[in-house]
Amino acid sequence: MRIESPAVANGLFVFAHPDDEFGCFESIRIEVESGRRVSCFYLTDGGYGGQPVARRKGESIRVLSSLGIDAEDVHFLGVELGIKDGVLHENMERVAGELSSVVRRLGPIESLYVPAWEGGHQDHDTAHVIALAVCGWLNLPACVWQFSLYHGAGLRGSFFHVMKPLPDNGTCVTQRIPVERRLRYLKLCLSYPSQWKTWLGLFPFVFFRLLFGGGYSIQRAHLQRLLQRPHAGPLLYERRCAIDYDCLGKKFRAFLNNTDSVDRSVLSMD
């Protein structure tokens, strides 16, 4: 009698753009070292303003490979579907359908990580919504984590916080890491030369968070949170991109309400 070996458990990371992984390097390490097969999905092409799409893909593949992820497990769905950076919210149904199709073939899912619901970039919030919808379609276990990238809570103009979880997103689980690993992650943040202008603004904050903040923090995702504005006051993408949250929030809710297969009891994470 042939005995089938148990299916390998999977850890998933859903990103909006190449380099979003900087907000969860430690979670990636933990998932890889746990023995899970780790797959990463990018939902836009990352080519905003004429950015070099192929170069951005290559940068993220090299960073993820250094963390132990096989290149064949890095999926650029946004490139394959022609989803432009900045307009993921206009393509939720297509992207969610393709993401669920790919994830369904992977086997058992142990955990999923996605950018936080925080009002920093419209694509980040949209990726958050899509990830929760796909969890409902596939009846995945309650194991979705969110990680902060950047947001403008309490600030004005173009000012922003980096890797600073919003209290309204729930209790933080702090991943404290040794100094040598923090330095390694800071070095990895310098591995995106195509984005040097962006990293001029991001790096000082990441440097401070990693060296003096002790490490990364993650929070559980809650479906009910999507019924609330990410934070009080103007959101960063409202100030920077003139994208109105009221309109975007209605689009998010309509997408979820029209998704009959979303089991809200599954998506409610406690």
Give the C-alpha Rg: 18 Å
Protein structure class: alpha/beta
Query: Could you tell me the strand content as a percent range?
Result: 5-15%
| Main sheet properties | 7 strands, mixed
Quaternary state of this entry equals single chain
Please report the total strand number as a whole number: 9
Q: Would you mind describing this structure in some detail?
A:
The chain is an alpha/beta fold. The chain has one domain (10-176, 217-259): Rossmann fold (3-Layer(aba) Sandwich), CATH 3.40.50. It has ten helices and nine strands. The chain has helices spanning 25-33, 53-66, 77-81, 92-104, 122-138, 179-188, 196-212, 236-241, 245-257, 264-267, and strands at 10-15, 37-42, 74-76, 109-115, 144-147, 150-151, 161-162, 173-176, 215-220. Strands 3-2-1-4-5-9-8 form a seven-stranded mixed β-sheet, sandwiched between helices. It has a two-stranded antiparallel sheet with strand order 6-7. Helix 1 (25-33) links the parallel strand 1 (10-15) and strand 2. Helix 6 packs antiparallel against helix 7. The longest helix has 17 residues, at 122-138. The chain is globular, with a radius of gyration of 18 Å. The N and C termini lie far apart (42 Å).
